[in-house]
Specification:
- The chain is mostly beta strands and about 70 residues long.
- Helix content is about 15%, strand content about 60%.
- A 6-stranded antiparallel β-sheet has the order 1-6-2-3-4-5, covered by helices on one side.
- The termini are close together.
Amino acid sequence: MSQVRRLETEADFAEALERGASIRVFKDDQLVDARAKIIRFDDSLVVTQSSVSDIAYYDRQNCQFFELRGR
């Protein structure tokens, strides 16, 4: 069973990026991206990649990010 951890701080995002962790992205209480990996982030933007050609840009203020961790 997977554990879910909310990403909020710069350290949280840096750790998820470094480990190549899968994340889920929610916007307006709806799942908009699942099993994506963070490829870049800054204080206002998170860039994720789900496949070779699927790159998405998310505003950190309007979205919630959760890391999926396996047991």
